[in-house]
Amino acid sequence: GFALNRSSDLARRMASSAKSVAKKAMANISSSTTNNAVDNMKLVGLWNFNGTACKFKSDNLFKKAGGVIAAKAVESELNGKCQEVGITKEKSSFEFKNGNSFITRWENHTMTGTYTYNEAKKTVSLKYNILLGMDATVKLNGNKMVLLFDADTLLKLFTFMGGLSGDATIRTAAKFAKSYDGMLVGFDLKK
User: What region does 12 belong to: left with phi over 0, alpha with psi -120 to 50, or beta?
Assistant: First the structure.
């Protein structure tokens, strides 16, 4: 009887422990899902292209490059590249939906995918259904958002968009990516 009671007691403790672990795991999953949904609510909506944006990766590089003047020159050139692939104020947007799906629109084209937003790190990971994935730094301020990518990452997006729009001039964008090493470049968006 003693061995049987010890076995029963051990089985009860193991079952209780397993229930406790399962409850904690479910609470963590629920909390993580809830927190992610709250984070995503700030991103959810239709964000229209409002121009380009750039940021130097380090303040030291920013000072060496002439600061604001250099940034404005980069944004001006980037605006030209955007127009080459059909990204304009009238026809371009990012739409982030509940459930982590998003749509990128430009000219008469649409690309869809999924996203993961990390508010603490101020980043969004975009995974296009066409197997193109990219990470961006996000700056949200009310109805304004800035999405910034490494220059070579943005080049991938431009190359793909240029291929869809039939624009051969995008081939020159490789020079663009090389000339902006050390910078984050992207889009200024407005809700």
Answer: alpha
Q: Would you say how long the chain is, in residues?
A: 191
**Distance between CA atoms of residues 75 and 52, nearest Å:** 6
What distance in Å separates the CA atoms of residue 102 and residue 97, rounded to the nearest whole number? 6
Q: Output the pLDDT for position 190.
A: 95
User: Cα dihedral angle (126, 78, 68, 57), rounded to 10 degrees?
Assistant: 40
* pLDDT at residue 166, as a whole number: 55
pLDDT given at position 124: 93
| Both tokens assigned to 82 | 């955007």
SS3 state at 26? helix
Is the model's pTM score more than 0.70? no
Query: Tokens standing for 184?
Result: 């984050």
Rounded Cα–Cα distance for residues 68 and 163 (Å): 33
**Tokens 């403790």 belong to residue:** 13
Share of the chain above pLDDT 90, in %: 27
Q: Is the pLDDT of residue 120 over 70?
A: yes
CA 136 to the chain's CA centroid? 4
CA distance 10 to 187: 60
Tokens representing residue 128 in the block:
């296009």
